[in-house]
Amino acid sequence: MTRPQIRRRLAVAWWLQLVLALLPLLVMGWIFGDNKPLWPILVMPCFIVGVASMFISLPRFRAYKHTLIATQKALDTPEEPGAWNALAQTRRVALHMASLPAWIAALAVPIGLEAVPLILLAISSVVLLYLYRIPRQLG
Where do the structural domains in the chain lie, given as residue ranges? Predict the structure, then answer.
């Protein structure tokens, strides 16, 4: 595969992960949005867990950054395909970790988490996902 093809494949994977991060929240909001909260006592703990889940992605970002640097160094060498594969694999795990706040928000919808905290958790996932875009300088 050529570099533009790999970059395109990684870009499509990023957009797909963005949809997979936010779609459960939208579906849960559509299904349970008008229902009475099931366990209002768990609202604050769910929000705290959602905010804390942002920090789970920190070690993954560090690994992604190091893999990104290794891929940059491997450009135009025989190790380039392996470096792209390692980058894709590291990034895939990191994208899943970055989606955790939105997924926790989706699980908190039936519990009764209000709209503002739901939106904050969704935005935090989008911001974390944005950190994993492939920079233009690479390739």
Answer: 3-130
DSSP annotation string for 13-62: HHHHHHHHHHHHHHHHHHHHTTSPPS-GGGHHHHHHHHHHGGGGHHHHHH
Question: For residues 105 and 50, is the Cβ–Cβ distance under 8 A?
Answer: yes
Burial code (b: 16+ CB inside 10 Å, e: under 16) for 83-96 equals bbebbbebbeebbe
Give CA–CA dist 118/127, Å, rounded.
Answer: 14
Q: What is the pLDDT of residues 79-132, one digit of tens each?
A: 888 999 999 999 999 999 999 999 999 999 988 888 899 999 999 999 999 999
**DSSP character at residue 77:** S
Quick one: tokens of 129? Answer: 């996902």
Q: Which residues contact 109 (CB under 8 A, 6 or more apart)?
A: 25, 28, 29, 32, 33, 118
Report the alpha-carbon angle 21-22-25, nearest 5.
115
